[in-house]
């Protein structure tokens, strides 16, 4: 008997328009026209237009860019003024001109590229392991309530602990090796990622979960099809925080765990200090900052923009 | 219990007598308690009802009458504290007051979702989604995302998605409550036509008595705290009905009076 109720082929059930004009047409028309037409048995409000016109896009780019450029100019000016004031001799605190020309030579010689490659390789490896571990821990704690109760505060404790504090132990366990650095990077980032995942699950609208269950999503399918995608914007915040922790732990690690044959950014910084090479030191600091901004803005910023645009969460991003 | 309305002539002679059709949904003495001990709240109290296949039943009651609790039980999202729920023909489809569309999917992906869950192949999915979107007049919006649609359009996508489930029973939890009057009138007509053409069984929960009379073959009246079935009205006004018509208004008034009575009764208790 249930089958008989499934009804005739859907094509037959296609609705005929109400009154004289077809609804789909009048509604589509009301979409294209921006002025209000005669009352249509369609929708009261117009859906927002998905893309702004070209001109305003360039304008938006510029209006986003100039404050950044102004802030940069201001920072460089203050730096230069401090140097000019003679507060410290310029072999200790060189001005921006000297530092940037040094950065340029290091860039041309390939030193920056080599160091950045070593450091980024560690960062990616460590972050990758932290991501896998964090997601696994987060999922497990979300699924098993007792585990969450048991390990929740432990996770918070791990997250608030400065990861540098792990280094003495890591060096004891792994000596001055890649493994020591990697271990601390993972320990720094994984709790943030796990916590971020848990928090983002808590913020999934229960209505969407109900809807998913009604439509037959159960168990792991519910996670895969509903909870994970619904949690994605919140999870991204956790990922971003995890990255920040990984990057900080890595810098600390490279300063403490010097591996001679791997001239990473940290090694370069440390050598510059030992050689009292202030120009080089500041140039490498700028490299650290630029890499951080690059990953944060380019990788996470782009992901955030895509997700927010798709879901219409553009209120904060303009 | 049954209060047939004497002033309304029976005009639906062409439709098979409802009593001849099989039962699609039956509740036998269903109760639902939330919490335990002293603090327990009885949301539903020994509710018994049956809905025949192809019937359009509206459930009306003030807030707190356990309407949503009942739908949750029928949808299998919750289990009754006592009694039994029988649903024929597999898991029912459920539509909410909010569209509950998935914001990370496009309109067509949303409609395809229940098909995907049922393991329907890609090709068939595509074809069915196109048919369903045509049914709700949204084929031009297939690639849009939910946030680009207005409230009425979202509810129509939600309806298409519910229909995609191919359930024989469609549960609707105040699906048009958040829409403006004109949109609502329009969707009443669309829903009525879809129902007539597909032979679906519909259980439609609302607090709007006129809406219930506009749509239902039968209107069930629930009291509040605890939710209990207090009256049942057979609506024999010929279709398509208009929500402004005098017959609808008169019947709605009668039901509303009874509803107030029930509410006062609950207040005294």
Characterize this entry briefly:
The complex is a heterodimer of chains A (318) and B (269). Chain A is mainly α. Helix content of chain A is 73%, strand content 0%.
Description:
The complex is a heterodimer of chains A (318) and B (269). Chain A is mainly α. Chain A is 73% helix and 0% strand. Chain A is globular and about 70 Å long. Residues 1-46 of chain A have low confidence and may be disordered. The longest helix of chain B is centred in the last third of the chain and has 23 residues, at 246-268. Chain B is α/β, with parallel strands linked by helices and 269 residues long. In chain B, the strands form 2 sheets. Chain B has a 6-stranded mixed beta sheet with strand order 5-6-7-3-8-9, sandwiched between helices. In chain B, strands 2-1-4 form a 3-stranded antiparallel beta sheet, with helices on one face. Chain B starts with 22 loop residues before the first strand and ends with a helix.
Helix content of chain B: 25-40%
Total domains of chain B: 2
Biggest interface in this structure?
A-B, 50 and 63 residues
Identify the overall geometry of chain B: globular
Topology:
The complex is a heterodimer of chains A (318) and B (269).
Chain A: H1 2-5, H2 23-32, H3 54-84, H4 96-109, H5 111-143, H6 145-160, H7 167-174, H8 178-202, H9 206-214, H10 219-256, H11 265-274, H12 278-311
Helix pairs in contact in A: 4-12, 5-6, 5-8, 5-10, 6-8, 7-8, 8-10, 9-10, 10-11, 10-12, 11-12
Chain B: E1 23-34, E2 41-52, E3 56-61, H1 67-75, E4 82-87, E5 93-95, H2 107-117, H3 122-135, H4 151-164, E6 169-173, H5 181-198, E7 201-206, H6 209-215, E8 218-223, E9 228-234, H7 246-268
Parallel strand pairs in B: 3-7, 3-8, 5-6, 6-7
Antiparallel strand pairs in B: 1-2, 1-4, 8-9
């Amino acid at each position: 008997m249930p089958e008989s109720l499934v009804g005739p082929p859907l094509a037959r059930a296609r609705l005929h328009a109400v009154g004289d004009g077809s609804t789909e047409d009048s509604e589509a028309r009301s979409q294209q026209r921006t002025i209000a037409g005669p009352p249509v048995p369609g929708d009261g409000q117009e859906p927002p237009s998905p893309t702004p016109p070209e001109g305003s896009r360039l304008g938006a780019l510029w209006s986003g860019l100039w404050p950044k450029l102004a802030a940069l100019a201001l920072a460089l000016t203050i730096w230069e003024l401090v140097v000019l004031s003679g507060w410290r001799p310029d072999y200790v605190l060189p001005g921006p001109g000297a530092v940037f020309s040094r950065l340029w030579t290091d860039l041309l010689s390939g030193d920056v590229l080599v160091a950045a490659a070593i450091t980024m390789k560690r960062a990616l490896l460590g972050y990758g392991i932290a991501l896998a571990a964090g997601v696994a821990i987060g999922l497990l704690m979300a699924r098993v309530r007792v585990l969450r109760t048991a390990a929740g505060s432990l996770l918070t404790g791990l997250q608030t602990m400065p990861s540098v504090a792990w280094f003495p132990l890591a060096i004891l366990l792994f000596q001055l090796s890649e493994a020591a650095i990697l271990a601390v990077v993972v320990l720094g980032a994984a709790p943030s990622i796990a916590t971020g995942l848990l928090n983002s699950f808590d913020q999934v609208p229960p209505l969407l979960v109900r809807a998913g269950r009604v439509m037959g999503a159960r168990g792991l399918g519910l996670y895969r099809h509903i909870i994970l995608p619904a949690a994605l914007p919140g999870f991204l915040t956790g990922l971003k925080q995890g990255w920040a922790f990984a990057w900080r732990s890595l810098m600390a690690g490279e300063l403490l765990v010097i591996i001679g044959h791997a001239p990473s950014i940290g090694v370069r910084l440390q050598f510059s200090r030992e050689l009292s090479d202030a120009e080089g030191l500041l140039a490498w600091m700028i490299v650290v900052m630029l890499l951080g901004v690059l990953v944060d803005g380019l990788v996470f910023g782009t992901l955030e923009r895509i997700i927010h645009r798709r879901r219409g969460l553009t209120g904060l991003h303009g | 219990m049954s209060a047939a309305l004497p002033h309304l002539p029976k005009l639906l002679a062409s439709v098979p007598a409802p009593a001849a059709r099989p039962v699609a949904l039956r509740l036998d003495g269903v109760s639902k308690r939330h919490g335990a001990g002293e603090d327990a709240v009885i949301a539903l109290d020994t509710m018994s009802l049956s809905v025949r296949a192809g019937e359009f039943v509206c459930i009306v009651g003030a807030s707190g009458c356990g309407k949503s609790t009942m739908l949750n039980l029928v949808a299998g999202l919750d289990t009754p504290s006592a009694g039994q729920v029988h649903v024929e023909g597999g898991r029912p489809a459920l539509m909410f007051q909010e569209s509950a569309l998935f914001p990370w999917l496009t309109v067509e992906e949303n409609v395809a979702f229940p098909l995907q869950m049922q393991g329907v192949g890609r090709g068939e999915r595509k074809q069915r989604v196109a048919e369903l979107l045509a049914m709700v007049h949204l084929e031009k919006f297939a690639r849009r995302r939910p946030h680009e649609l207005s409230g009425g359009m979202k509810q129509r996508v939600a309806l298409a998605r519910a229909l995609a489930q191919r359930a024989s029973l469609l549960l609707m939890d105040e699906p048009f409550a958040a829409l403006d009057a004109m949109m609502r009138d329009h969707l009443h007509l669309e829903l009525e036509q879809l129902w007539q053409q597909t032979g679906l069984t519909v259980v439609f929960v609302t607090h709007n008595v006129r809406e219930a009379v506009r749509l239902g073959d039968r209107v069930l009246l629930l009291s509040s705290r605890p939710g209990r079935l207090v009256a049942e009205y057979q609506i024999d006004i010929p279709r398509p009905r208009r929500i402004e018509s005098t017959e609808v208004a008169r019947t709605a008034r009668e039901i509303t009076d009874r509803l107030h009575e029930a509410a006062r009764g609950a207040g005294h208790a």
